[in-house]
Predict the 3D structure of the following.
Amino acid sequence: MDKVVTLSEAVASIPSGSHVALSGFAITRATMAFAAEVLRQGIRNLTVSQCVGAMDADLLVSGGAVSRILYGGGSLDRFGRLACVNRAIEEGSIVAEEYSSLSMVFRYVAGALGLPFITIRSLRGSDVLKQLEEKAPSAVAYVDDPFTGEKWLALRPLNPDVAVVQVQVADPEGNAWIYGPRWDNEEQVKASKRAIVITEQLVPTEVIRRDPERTVIHGFRVSHVVHLPFSAHPTAVYRAYDYDADHIRMYAEAAKTPEGMRAYLDKYVYGVKDHWEYLELVGGVRHLTKLAADPILGY
């Protein structure tokens, strides 16, 4: 079944108020074109979850699309903080539940397995747990081990409405390969009601079938496939292109103030019709080819 659609069509399938799991990790494989299109379509009141907060979540928050975020911390790596997320938390315009990265993965695993809860040891005695108990008491509980009587910390499962995953290779049915670190992406997809795959390369299903062990996301879980080169720009996609350091540096500077961020959004999100116009604005083919990955090194 051919599920290939435009980015606009895929984003339009997500109603306001949805819970969206994002694949990004800091400045790597972030769903940047997706986030920009969400803002252009005016989708609001989203719950966003991801193992480690990334640039895609920061962009969504900057445009007012997010009302709640569940994440294991995050940053723009060496370029600084997720300034828009942090400012929104401080101002109280979004609700934040901050976990450890591992406990976020556990919540997705519980959702994927259909469990009512999952126990975890690593949060015990941490400030992260103290804050959760104070700010989100319904997210954690304690259960007795029926075998030993020991008291265990339990977490609720996560079952997002849709997982949006940036990948390197996919076929029209949604079977997808992820090169390099996968983080929580596989668990996100299995826990979600459906997935949207955004791919750098679209290949025939026959190609996928030659190496079935590479398939991380299986097509029966996928509702939409979007073929969109450089769709994670300015973040990196291993074996496709490196991050755009100058652009991220500019973004980080703009994000320090609401005024600076509004100017960024007006130019790079609302000031272009779609992702193709955005790519022309940031320098077009001449600039993007400089970011292309070395075939040996992968970045």
